[in-house]
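A.,

Following up on our hallway conversation. Structure tokens first:
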């Protein structure tokens, strides 16, 4: 793998600062050796990746104003999920709508921290009760988050900012669902 110089955007820096206020242990630009990608923010112990997705990660809005991830972004998410990472996207158009530090921290608690904790608790309960089968926690479903498996379609209600959930295995997150 080649060493390349990484420039961290102001957007990524602001997400990192807000995330550090709600959960410690995230690393910036964490290298993922199996895929060759650098994760914007990662909690390696939990295999949780937070991708800070600026405008270059999306196609132009469609006729309904919905922005969909571009091919490069979809490929990265799919490969990271296949490598065992739970990928959370923080899209610029949602982040820009959060004006205060407390609003940003609340957003990150909802999409990154609480689902991780409650999913771990649900998985531990399922492992004990069902002999190791993974389940999606009620808290994750209640927040409008969905886990998609290989060949499945992530569910949840549509919203004007999110559109239809994409058909690839990663955690689609929207605080506005």
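Then the amino acids I'd put at each of the 177 positions:
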């Amino acid at each position: 793998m080649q060493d390349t110089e990484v420039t961290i955007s102001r957007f990524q820096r602001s997400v990192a600062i807000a995330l550090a206020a709600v959960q410690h242990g995230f690393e910036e630009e964490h290298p993922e050796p199996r895929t060759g990608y650098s994760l914007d923010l990662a909690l390696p112990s939990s295999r949780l990746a937070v991708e800070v997705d600026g405008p270059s990660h999306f196609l132009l809005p469609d006729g309904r104003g919905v922005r969909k991830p571009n091919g490069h972004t979809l490929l990265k998410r799919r490969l990271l999920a296949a490598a065992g990472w739970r990928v959370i996207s923080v899209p610029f158009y949602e982040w820009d709508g959060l004006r205060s530090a407390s609003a940003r921290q609340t957003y990150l608690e909802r999409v990154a921290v609480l689902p991780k904790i409650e999913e771990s608790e649900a998985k531990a309960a399922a492992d004990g009760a069902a002999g190791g089968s993974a389940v999606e926690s009620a808290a994750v479903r209640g927040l409008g988050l969905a886990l998609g498996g290989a060949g499945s379609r992530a569910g949840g209600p549509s919203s004007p900012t999110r559109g239809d959930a994409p058909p690839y295995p990663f955690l689609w997150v929207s605080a506005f669902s």
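The chain is about 35% helix and 15% strand. Curious whether your intuition agrees with the design.

B.
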